[in-house]
């Protein structure tokens, strides 16, 4: 959401990934639903892995909205205090100090904190602009160019004495490009991590031809071992609630979850907050209307800023977040 302020020179920051367009709707819902349950909210309750209410609710939500080829069970989910914590916990569990995580460039500026600060891992940028045949940012979504970029990044990291442990993606890629990422991880004994924090946004951008496709909806089991396939999600973007600090890791790697549990006392989402998100997920009618309203308002605001750019002949790259409801197994 843009706030008009007097411009006195300098820069206009657009990097903060927050959306307050439907905050009033969310506040009203939380106030209506909020009820303190002493035995669940004022005790240690079910521990750091996630409540018995939220994980089943998330499983149903994933199956409705992400269309996974395999059932998503509560045992496949680990609740974290936000997506930052999800990335940090996974990286901390799979990396030794100095190991690397490959991330396609450009990436969310917060990844450097998520990956490096506690785990002492290194963020290795997967760059495209130096590749032969590179023409524009569109090449970031091309399967062939992605293969070249990943190979180059892996060689560069190893030449610097860095041992890569995973590839982290966070963009809306075509199916074949997602498969390329997964296959590359399998070939090089790396973990595949898909940040899918934005699933429900559909702005109706006529420039784009690709829908959002979750890695869960791809036949990934034929491409990589289940112990090295992980998907991350949170309430921050689709539910416009960064401040709730709640996210989730999907994985079938029980060793990973044991490792995350061992440090879970340091990053434990309150069960009261878990119940708030569970209530949002369980109320299908409400969340569908919320997502529709959010989509409409985001499209309106996207139009404001792009028309501003066009009028002043300022070049920009079209948004690449789209979800049109065409959900199918691939």
UniProtKB/TrEMBL annotation:
CDD domains attached to this UniProt entry:
AAT_like
Record flagged with keyword Cell membrane? no
Q: What is the lineage of its organism?
A: Eukaryota, Fungi, Dikarya, Ascomycota, Pezizomycotina
Pfam (any one): Aminotran_1_2
Q: Which domain of life is it from?
A: Eukaryota
- The UniProt record lists the Aminotransferase class I/classII large domain at 15-313
This chain belongs to the protein called Aminotransferase class I/classII large domain-containing protein
Keywords (alphabetical) are: Pyridoxal phosphate
Which molecular-function annotations from GO does this UniProt entry contain?
A: pyridoxal phosphate binding; transaminase activity
Q: Which PANTHER family match?
A: AMINOTRANSFERASE CLASS I_CLASSII DOMAIN-CONTAINING PROTEIN (PTHR43795:SF39), BIFUNCTIONAL ASPARTATE AMINOTRANSFERASE AND GLUTAMATE/ASPARTATE-PREPHENATE AMINOTRANSFERASE-RELATED (PTHR43795)
Per the UniProt record, the source organism is Fusarium equiseti
Q: Which parts of the chain span the membrane according to its record?
A: none
Q: One biological process GO term for this chain?
A: amino acid metabolic process
């Amino acid at each position: 959401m843009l706030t008009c302020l007097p411009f006195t020179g300098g820069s206009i920051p657009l990097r903060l990934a927050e959306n307050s367009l439907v905050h009033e709707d969310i506040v009203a819902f939380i106030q209506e639903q909020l009820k303190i349950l002493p035995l669940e909210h004022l005790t240690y309750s079910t521990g750091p892995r996630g409540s018995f209410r939220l994980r089943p609710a998330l499983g149903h939500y994933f199956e409705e909205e992400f269309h996974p080829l395999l059932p998503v069970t509560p045992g496949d989910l680990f609740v974290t205090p936000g997506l930052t914590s999800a990335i940090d916990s996974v990286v901390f569990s799979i990396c030794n100090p100095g190991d690397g995580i490959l991330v396609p460039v450009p990436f969310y500026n917060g990844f450097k904190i998520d990956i490096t600060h506690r785990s002492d891992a290194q963020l290795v940028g997967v760059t495209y602009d130096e590749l032969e045949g590179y023409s524009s940012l569109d090449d970031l979504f091309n399967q062939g160019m992605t293969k070249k970029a990943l190979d180059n990044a892996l060689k560069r990291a190893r030449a610097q004495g860095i041992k890569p442990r995973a590839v982290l993606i966070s963009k809306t890629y075509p199916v074949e490009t997602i498969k390329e990422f997964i296959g590359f991880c399998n070939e090089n004994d790396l973990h595949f991590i898909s940040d899918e924090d934005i699933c429900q946004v559909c702005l109706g951008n006529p420039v784009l031809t690709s829908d959002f496709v979750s890695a869960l909806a791809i036949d990934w089991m034929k491409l990589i071992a289940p112990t090295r396939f992980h998907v991350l999600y949170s309430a921050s973007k689709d539910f416009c609630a960064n401040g709730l600090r709640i996210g989730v890791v999907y994985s079938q790697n029980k060793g990973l979850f044991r490792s995350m549990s061992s440090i879970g006392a340091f990053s434990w989402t309150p069960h009261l907050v878990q119940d708030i998100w569970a209530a949002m997920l369980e109320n299908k009618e409400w969340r569908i209307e919320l997502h529709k309203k959010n989509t409409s308002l985001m499209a309106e605001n996207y139009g404001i800023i792009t028309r501003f750019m066009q009028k002043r002949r300022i070049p920009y790259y079209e948004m690449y977040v789209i979800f049109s409801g065409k959900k199918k197994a691939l």
